[in-house]
Every structure is written in C-alpha cells, then in structure tokens.
Amino acid sequence: MKHFFWHVLTDIDFQLPLYLVSMGYWGNQPPVVRKDGYKAFQWIQCFDGQGILEIEGKSLTISRGQGMLLYPGVPHRYYPVEEPWTVQWVEFNGDFAGPLLQSLQFNNSMPLFVTKPDLVEARINEINHLYSIRNQISSYEGSYLLYGLLMDLFRYTSTSDTRSNQEQLEQLKPVIDYIQQHYAQPLTLRHLANQLGVTPQYTCVLFQQTLGTRPFAYINQYRIHKAKEILQLYPDLEISHISKKIGFDSPSYFIKLFKRSEGITPNHFRSVYKTT
C-alpha cells in the first residue's frame, strides 16, 4: 500500500531556506533504482522489515529503527530483503538544506539509527496529517515543521547502534538530579545505579561515554562546586563544617581535592573572594 502527498510548490517555497516537496508511506517499499540520484533530499525511515541501500560502492542494511538520509544527485538503489519493508519518507529542498545538514554533521548520504523512532514518526505524521486535512498547507508552516524534523534527526539519531550523547544525557538525568539533591550524604555506586534501573557497571559506562568522567569524580566535582558557594556565602564557617556539609568526613581529604581542582586551598579561595 502506498500513501503520499505532493506539495504544490509556489514562488514562496523557492524563496524559503527549507521547503517540503513530498511525504508519504509505503506498506511494502518496492525496489528503487536511481542511476543519476534524486532531485531532492530525502529522509526514509524504516518501521518494519528490512532492506538494502546500495550507495557509493557500499551495501548497507536498513532495518526497523533505522533510516536513510539521501543527498540529491547521488546514484543509489534500495530494495527489500525482508518483507513487508514498511517505510515513511519526507522529501525536501532549499538553499539552506545542504548547509544545515552539514552543520549538523550529516555530511553526506548515510544510514542512521533512530534512538526514539516514535518521536520522529510523530513529527512525520504531523506533517502528513496537516497535508491530508488541507488542500494546501502554508509554505511557512511546512518549512517550520521540516526544520523541527531535522532537529529531531540531529537529536535522536546516531551513525552507530548506540544512543546519541543527548539521549545518554537524558538517561543520566535522574542520577544527576539525585546527586544534586543528596550530595551531602554518603553515596554509593549502587545508589546511583538504582536511579537508572541498570547495573553499577553500566552506570560507570554511561558516565564515561556521556560526561567523560567516572561517577565519583563527577560527585566530587559537584561537591567542590557547592563548597565554593558556601565559602563565599559564609566566610566565617570553619573548613571542617564545610567539609561535612558537602559530604566529606575528612577535612584534609576535602582540602586536598579542592586544591587539586582549583589550584588553591579553600582558605586561600575565601581570602581571594573577600578582596574582590
């Protein structure tokens, strides 16, 4: 089954930096061969089955949870290998299309893994719905929706079967919030892992991949940040009290970490602040 809408292009469309050309749905995508490439940019997202994209001497599998971003003028062909190969597509163009994709690091035609396919599908369905209920959607509104789709692709896709950094940050948010609320208390790796519902080992992997640091290095960094706030707000508070307020039982260990992080001791930091 095929279902699609073509946008009747006007002079306004051609003046816009981004404009929609068509969008649609194939219940079972048939083989497509384009020896000279296509005339516009395309995003084709797979929702079921499996197909092969042949492009630039490569043969790439496109399965559920993936999509293919195709640049205009690049020879290619694609065909199903596990049917039904169900896809949705959006075709677009505009003077800003190429530069925008380049700025988002989508430098050429490529397959992409979609980390939140439901959200991207919802964006495409929004476009489809507006075209289906109106004879002609506003060119400006179409450009706006297209820009939102490209931002979704930037946010929710990656070139490998791993989540984007933004996605990893979103998964880490519960544990980051937990640290900020409980930094003054004793924290264990198990405490952190429980906030995510994953193993302690995977928690370490997420921190390293997303923030480039270990969980307890991040905790210490946040505690030092809070210590600097307290040193400025309460210039007469003893260092031992500050140490306990931010979760360190040992004042000497706190002083050591503070100096390693800031290059000066807490007392020196406080004296500098007093003179400013």
Structural features, described:
- The longest helix has 19 residues, at 215-233.
- A hairpin with a 2-residue loop joins β4 (41-55) and β5 (58-63).
- The chain starts with a strand and ends with a helix.
- The protein has 11 helices and 9 strands.
- Strands 1, 2, 3, 4, 5, 6, 7, 8 and 9 form a 9-stranded antiparallel sheet that branches.
- It has helices spanning 11-15, 97-103, 117-133, 139-156, 165-182, 189-196, 200-211, 215-233, 239-245, 251-262, 266-274, and strands spanning 2-6, 19-26, 32-34, 41-55, 58-63, 66-70, 76-93, 110-114, 157-158.
- The mean pLDDT is 86.
- With 276 residues, the chain is α+β, with helices and mostly antiparallel strands.
- α3 runs antiparallel to α4 and α5 crosses α7.
- It comes from Paenibacillus allorhizoplanae.
- This is Arabinose operon regulatory protein.
- Residues 157-240 form the TFIIE beta domain.
- Residues 173-272 form the HTH araC/xylS-type domain.
- Pfam families: AraC_binding (PF02311), HTH_18 (PF12833).
Give a brief description.
The chain is of the alpha+beta class and 276 residues long.
In terms of topology, how is this protein built?
Blueprint: E1 2-6, H1 11-15, E2 19-26, E3 32-34, E4 41-55, E5 58-63, E6 66-70, E7 76-93, H2 97-103, E8 110-114, H3 117-133, H4 139-156, E9 157-158, H5 165-182, H6 189-196, H7 200-211, H8 215-233, H9 239-245, H10 251-262, H11 266-274
Antiparallel strand pairs: 1-2, 2-7, 3-7, 4-5, 4-6, 4-7, 6-8, 8-9
Helix pairs in contact: 3-4, 5-6, 5-7, 6-7, 8-11
